[in-house]
From TrEMBL:
Keywords recorded for this protein, A-Z: DNA-binding, Transcription, Transcription regulation
Keyword tRNA processing belongs to the record: no
GO molecular function list: DNA binding; DNA-binding transcription factor activity
Organism: Mesobacillus foraminis
One Pfam family cited in the UniProt record for this chain: HTH_5
Protein name per the record: Regulatory ArsR family protein
SMART domains the UniProt entry points to: HTH_ARSR
Tagged with keyword DNA-binding: yes
Domain of life from the UniProt record: Bacteria
Amino acid sequence: MNIKVLDSIVYEVLLSLSLYKRQTHLKYLAISKDWYEETKHKISNELHKEITELADLQFEDLSVHLIQHCPYNNFKGYHLWLSELPLGEMYELLAPYVSEKRGMPSDLDKRRKNHLLILLKWYREYFIDIEEMVSPILTHNIKNVDVSALKEHPFSEIEVITKGFNIENLQVSEVVLAPTWHFRPLSLVDIFNEKVVLTYPCSMGVRDETLLITKALAEDKRLQILSGMKEESKTFTELVQLIGMSKGNIHHHLLLLRSAGLLRITPTRQEYFLYNFRHCRIKELSDLLLSF
């Protein structure tokens, strides 16, 4: 299994654009709770309209593979490289990662041009002002990855880095790890046939990590959820039945537990997760409290 750590500011630019478009899990993220509204007022009305009118992010979701193959890790270099990349070569780079579910866009070149246009505007109107702050944080979290531990114990180390993702059952041939500042404290997973992309959160410091865990534990229903999965894995549906709460409430509690690193999450190729109580996080809480 080949494991790579993605070192490119472009991926964070892309993630922030995706976050603005999808507004995924905003209330669970470490960025300002008003981030979306503040960003909306920062960018032009024209750009906001272009983003909201995007039918989907099909090309953007695939573009992580282009970012990985790009010889430049800065935005200007990526933008120029992708604009000049022959269409046939781009198709060949993306082809191994498409599937029946995540197909190749039929209008690939049109999608590329629109991607480059919107991403450039987004970079100029939003990201460039925070790049000097975010870039060294991402670099620090890349350098903190223990490469030797990844080689010796890949699955357990990936679980540590991502605060809970267990990918051993996926039997993939390639893993890409990429740090994120915008999606802290959550990790994300994308499966592309024999390749998995794991986006892991930049470290948040002793105080914030301690508060994530203690706040997640300070609720009876979340303790019930952890108790219900301490012996064996549970699916989301099984947890809904076990706890007797609405799907929305269970989803909310799982995200808080996930943010705190209290869940071992096993993705499956059937597009559902298996959840376990990640007991080792309690020992980590003890260590955090002692160093507080």
